[in-house]
Amino acid sequence: MIPRCFSRSSTRSGRWLATGLLVMLLPSICGCGAFYKHRLETPVGPLWTNGNIETARRYQKDLGWMKAGLCERLPIITTGVGSASILLKTEDRNRIIREDEIRTAGWYNHALSLIQFTPSSPADRILLQRQPDPLGHRTLLHELTHHYTAGDSRIRSKWWLTEAISCSMESSFLDHLGQFQVPPLHPLQYRKAREVLSDLGRARFTEYAEEIVSESWLGFYRNDGEIPARYAISWAILWTLQEQMSGTHETRLLAVIGLKKDQIVARIPDVIEAITPSLTTQYRRYLDSDRYRRWAIDQWLLDDRIDGRAILAAIEVEMLDSLASAWAWSCTTNLILRTRSRLDRNTRSEWQQRIIEQLESGTMEVRQAICTAIPEYRWADQLIPALIELLETDRAELRAAAAAALSRISQHPTIVNPAFWISAAESDRSREIGEWRSWLGEN
Amino acid sequence: MSLESYPAQISARPCLKSVSPGSPILHQKLRTHLYIGLLLLSVPLLGLIGCTTTMLRPEVIDVSEISREKDVKTFMVSLKKVVPRQQFQQWTKDHIEQNRLEIENPDHENIPIFELHYHFVHRSGRFRTRRIAYVMWRRSEENPARFEHQFTYLGSGIPMQFWRSR
Question: Does A232 reside within a domain?
Answer without folding.
Answer: no
